[in-house]
Write a structure and sequence with these properties.
TerB family tellurite resistance protein, 67% helix, 136 residues
Length: 136
């Protein structure tokens, strides 16, 4: 596997952590949140690049794979966000404005997928906004 492939796969895995953190911030990941993620992953994230994993599958599917794994393991949303945050700080060059906008759109859609946004989801979105504005 090439360095570019490794970078791309790690990038998408960390997006999976972020999107899981948003969905799980209220301690429950609902089917509608997962369905929203899958829909956006297929309609938007597949278009980003042509990076594939070692099995020839588009690397953007790592978003769903990691999200699903974290949900099955019922891991802590806070820890998932912190892992994404650390990745972001170490790899800011991967986060061009268009990518940040797509991340924001995806996170916002996941948060609103079940009966609108609740307080926990709004707080997580606020932290993401501050992160992207380099305030945390």
């Amino acid at each position: 596997m090439t360095t570019a492939q490794n970078i791309g796969i790690t990038f998408y895995q960390n997006l999976g952590k972020l999107f899981y953190a948003v969905a799980a911030s209220d301690k429950v990941v609902r089917k509608s949140e997962y369905d929203t993620l899958r829909k956006i992953a297929k309609s938007e994230w597949l278009k980003i690049d042509d990076i594939e994993d070692e099995f020839g599958v588009d690397a953007s599917f790592q978003i769903e794979i990691v999200f699903d794994w974290l949900d099955n393991e019922e891991l802590n949303a806070e820890e998932s966000f912190k892992q994404f945050e650390a990745y972001y700080h170490e790899n800011k060059s991967h986060f061009k404005d268009a990518i940040k906008q797509l991340i924001w759109t995806t996170a916002n859609a996941i948060a609103g997928a079940f009966s609108g946004k609740n307080k926990s989801e709004l707080m997580m979105l606020g932290r993401l906004k501050l992160l992207f504005e380099d305030k945390i």
